[in-house]
Amino acid sequence: MVDKEKIKEQAKKLMDEFVSALEKAEEVKEDFGVKRKDVMRTPSKDKYKGTDFKERMLKNAPKVEDEQIVAEKKKW
Amino acid sequence: MVNMLVKEKLDKLKKGELSAVDNILNCIKVIEKEDKKINAFIHVNKNAVEEAKLVDEKIKKGKAGKLAGLAIGLKSNINVTGLPITCASKTLKNYIGTYDADVVEKIKKEDGVIIGMLNCDEFACGSSGETSAFGATDNPAAPGRIPGGSSSGSAASVAAGMCDISLGSDTGGSIRNPASHCGVVGIKPSYGRVSRYGLIDLSMSLDQIGPVSKDVYGAALMLSVISGKSEYDATTFDKPVPDYTKFKVPKKIRIGLSDDFKRLCSDERIYALVEKSAKKLAEKLGSEVKNIKLKYVDLAIQTYYPLCYVEFFSGTRKFDGRRYGEKIEDACGEEVLRRILGGQEISKAEFHGKYYRKALQVKELIKEDFEKAFKDVDIIISPATPVLPHKIGTKITDPKVMYAYDAFTIPANLAEICAGVVKCGEIEGIPVSLHVMAPAFKDELLFNVLKAWEDLE
Question: Which residues of B touch A49 (CB under 8 A)?
């Protein structure tokens, strides 16, 4: 049985250790990130229109009724 | 046939001296014979022979594409219609791909035959191939040792002759690390060179899909096919895609070695072999070797993991078990859970700026390190890994020990440059590779250097 709390603590400790090492980097860069002119996906056409994509997708769903995926409400 | 290089095989296929069907059947024969012990495949495509028949018809008509009849293996995190895309996890053990990734569309268009889905570390989280829910993969080049990861099956399948070329994904070394341990060629293209549409991501700002092949030609051919702008991936660049197989001898280039890498190499024998090989290459090319400074490269692992944990946590929120698969936290293994829970923890609002932002800041410094270095040199060479691959099943309880495998490969992902590995020798009978790094979108130069080394050997 996996001990989730133990793993979470271990991961946090590891991240603290790593980020503490990053303090060595004295310079601070505020301008970072991946720079792109167009950051949105702008497909020129819907490549799945008219295909059986929906049927394929629904085959992976645990519960389907009337071509809709059924999922519990309360846990959302 | 098993040892035939891609160039030679492709010539035979195009001339009709070898049929696509026979090529696929030969690969399947090797899989049936060897894969019980190697465990490189999670699923073999039952339609591969039928698909090869169609390629043979096109070859006869002289209409076949660039990959005509070659057997292509895919890491199990790349979507293909109708094949199981498990990510080597119980989370997706019954998930069937509903669409083709951009790279798969391109491979099919050029008449490559998808032979199957390959084993890997679970959700690409690992450096040894041991975290797969489908069992560890063995190393065909060093039996009993790990093949490296996370694209373990991608490297092992090519090394064992089960397929001609494979695709893996490389977030911090996941193509180059296993390719090196298995003695084959592995490429991480420049960030934005290859569309990630259809790749189940580990860390979206770092992931790239790339090829593994027995020879430089095969890797160059595959990258020529899968590169280019995609309207489904906003991070791809609209830059021309050269034919990477048109190799040129890169004369008088400046080669960089760095003591900052040397200090990180735990096994001195590995560094000595790589340094000797780099100097031999420089001599052949009439090049000079310079020692370069990479001030922050020793912080690469510490920078990479906070980014990876947070992006992985974010990317895995879709695996809630409602539309497909199982809820990831209930089905995954320990390393995947560590990254999810760790990522969740450090993403909390109260930690704003402390982890992810700090790591992004240092990532930028590492990127600048490389940009400065590339003003003095054309390429940089380091080992691919700081140690030889461990024996399968070795108990490693400290994650940092496993993470250290990628000390030399992570910087290329952080700097968004291209990099590749090619075998340069053996230590204790285990392959050791040159890890060559070139500036972003100088993938052509990278291939020219790797080819120059291959021809030298």
Answer: none
- Concerning whether B150 is annotated as a catalytic residue, the answer is yes
Judge: B338–A32 Cβ closer than 8 Å, yes or no. no
Check if B75 is active-site: yes
B332-347 pLDDT, tens digit per residue, is 999 999 999 999 999 9
ω into B150 cis (within 30 of 0):
yes
Per-residue DSSP letter, B327: B
For chain A, domain boundaries = 49-76
Q: Across B322-444, where does the E strand assignment appear?
A: 379-383, 418-427, 430-438
Q: How far apart are CA B424 and CA B291, in angstroms?
A: 20
Residue ranges of domains in chain B: 1-457
Number of A/B CB contacts below 8 angstroms equals 119
Q: Encoding tokens for residue B438? A: 């070139």
Q: Extract the tokens encoding B240.
A: 């021309």
Write out chain B residues lying below 8 Å of A32, CB-based: 360-361, 363-364
Amino acid at B388: L
Q: Are B343 and B310 in contact (CB under 8 A)?
A: yes
- Furthest-apart CA atoms within chain A: distance in Å: 59
CA distance B69 to B86: 26
Taking alpha carbons only, the member of B386, B362, B312 closest to residue B127 is B386
Sign (positive or negative) of CA dihedral B194, B196, B198, B199? positive
Residue in A with minimal Cα distance to B306: A15
Per-residue model confidence (pLDDT) at position A39:
67
Asked whether the predicted pLDDT for residue B221 surpasses 90, the reply is yes
Contact of B358 with chain A, judged by CB distance below 8 Å, is answered with yes
pTM across the whole model: 0.97
DSSP character string of B271-321: HHHHHHHHHHHHHHHT-EEEE---TTGGGHHHHHHHHHHHHHHHHGGG-BS
Nearest-Cα distance to chain A for B260, in Å, is 15
Q: Which residues contact residue A1 at a Cβ distance below 8 angstroms, ignoring those fewer than 6 apart?
A: none
**Contact call for residues B197 and B102 (beta carbons, < 8 A):** yes
DSSP tag of B200: -
- Are B117 and B95 in contact by the 8 Å Cβ rule? The answer is no
Q: State how far the alpha carbon of B223 is from the alpha carbons of A66, B104, B209, B248, B436, in Å.
A: 43, 12, 9, 17, 16
Query: A60 vs B325: CB contact, 8 Å cut-off?
Result: yes
d(Cα B179, Cα B384) in Å, to the nearest integer?
9
Instruction: Single out the catalytic residue among B89, B127, B128, B150.
Output: B150
- Residue B133 pLDDT > 70: yes
Of A15, A27, A44, the CB nearest to B365: A27
Domain B1-457 has CATH 3.40.50.150: no
Q: Residue B381: what are its φ and ψ, rounded to 5°?
A: -120, 135
ipTM above 0.95, yes or no: no
Q: CA–CA distance from A5 to each of A45, B32, B133, B145, B399 (Å)?
A: 46, 42, 22, 32, 16
